[in-house]
Amino acid sequence: MAHWLFKSEPATWSWTQMVAAGAKGTFWNGVRNHLAKKQMMAMQKGDRGFFYHSNEERAIVGIVEVIKTYYPDHTDESGKFGMVDVKAVKPLKAVSLAQIKNEPKLADMVLVNNSRLSVQPVTDAEWRIILAMAGEKA
DNA sequence: GCCAACGTTGGC
DNA sequence: GCCAACGTTGGC
User: Fold this and answer.
1) A138 falls within a domain
2) Which of A33, A35, A66, A135 is most buried by a 10 A CB count?
3) Nearest alpha-carbon partner for A122 in A13, A135, A138
4) pTM for this predicted structure
């Protein structure tokens, strides 16, 4: 199973709203970047990802699960982009960007090197390390 | 609030 | 098809 990282500004779409969306989840729209699109197209139902708050908070705050694979985003007038549906799985003890940058094993994470990408792949090793940092058992 | 990095746009 | 200019994002 592949792992991902979904990035959102808390002011636009926060973890609290993600949790409030419940088991039916929500669509992850608004992506207008081809690299991010590529990641979403590779997602499978049941894949899990970190939910990251950018800007003010800069921390991973929860885990989400893909519940619907890639489909067209009807709000995109160009018709080039699509979206997936995700639901909140569980909150995590926040792992901050500073903590991630302080961990040498995570030096190659996309979040560290290309922080502007809104949907990112996470390797299995990175997934386990961050779960451990959040005090979770992998 | 500033600035660096990246993506996109548009002129040629 | 190249590249400069511009806009946006996000860390600090």
Assistant:
1) no
2) A66
3) A138
4) 0.94
